Amino acid sequence: QVQLVESGGGLVQAGGSLRLSCAASGYSFWTYAVGWFRQAPGKEREIVAAISREGSSTYYSDFVKGRFTISRDNAKKVVYLQMNSVIPDEGAVYYCAARLASPDVVVTRPNEYNYWGQGTQVTVSS
Q1: Could you read off the pLDDT of 23-50 as tens digits, one per residue?
Q2: What secondary structure does DSSP assign to 27-72, as a single string?
Q3: Dist CA 96 CA 113 (whole Å)
Q4: Would you call 41 exposed, middle or buried from its count of C-beta atoms within 10 A (0-12, 13-18, 19+)?
Q5: pLDDT score of 53
Q6: What is the distance, to the nearest Å, from the Cα of residue 26 to the centroid of all Cα atoms in its chain?
Q7: Which of 2, 39, 115, 121 stands 20 to 30 A from 46 (CA)?
Q8: 88-125 burial by CB neighbour count: b if 16+ within 10 A, else e?
């Protein structure tokens, strides 16, 4: 079983940067693929980025490609989402999620994840 806690959210100006962290507890975190999702009021939860269990494979949605970077430190059991050049529409609650996965597998659908954090709010001022 894995428990996830997001942190790093807050207020950021449009064009600014923010780094979110997803800290995991439990054993064998290195066997879990992880994804970052976001959900704005009245909208569906959408994938932002995902990373394989070793960190060797990554996925980015078209909206964030080239601006956001997902990475992980399995020794520390943390997955990061570096957000650069943030735009106002990206204000949302950001969630991380995890599931057991084979090597090099990235998981992009929310219903394929077993474990979720409580989310961290990101507010973007224009």
Answers
A1: 999 879 999 999 999 999 999 999 999 9
A2: S-GGGEEEEEEEE-TTS--EEEEEE-TTSS-EEE-TTTTTTEEEEE
A3: 10
A4: exposed
A5: 97
A6: 18
A7: 2
A8: eebbbbbbbbbbebeeeebbbebeebebbbebbebebe
Min mean pLDDT across 26-30, 48-52, 55-59, 95-99 is at 26-30
Q: Identity (one letter) of the amino acid at 14?
A: A
- Reply yes or no on whether the pLDDT at 19 is more than 90: yes
Q: Is the pLDDT of residue 15 over 90?
A: yes
Sign of CA dihedral 95, 100, 106, 109: negative
Pairwise CA distance, residues 37 & 14, whole Å: 19
What are 117's two structure tokens? 């954090």
